[in-house]
Amino acid sequence: MSTTTTRTTITIPTTLLAATDRAIVSGNANSRNELISRAIQRELALIRRAEIDADLAQMAQDPEYQAEVLQMEAEFATAQWEAFQTVETQK
Length: 91
Description:
The chain has 91 residues and is mainly α. The chain has two domains: 11-60; 64-91. Helices cover 76% and strands 0% of the residues. It contains three helices and no strands. The protein has helices spanning 14-25, 32-60, 63-90. It starts with 13 loop residues before the first helix and ends with a helix.
C-alpha cells in the first residue's frame, strides 16, 4: 500500500535522539522515520481513546441516554433469558 509522505524537521532532545538511534541499532526499528511515525501513531491512538472515554463518561451522566439504555434492556430481557436457557440446556 502506498502512503503519501511529507518531509518535515523536528527538534528533539539529544538524549532522545541517541535513544532512538540505539533502538535502530538493536533492531527495534528500521529507521528514525519509522520509529517516530510509530510513536506519533501510538500517541494519537491514546488521545483518541481518551476522547472516547470522555464521551462515555458524559453519556453516563446523560439522563436521556440512561433512559434509552433502560428501555433497550427491557426490550431485550426476554431474548437474553431465552438465550441463557438455550445455552444452559446444551451443557
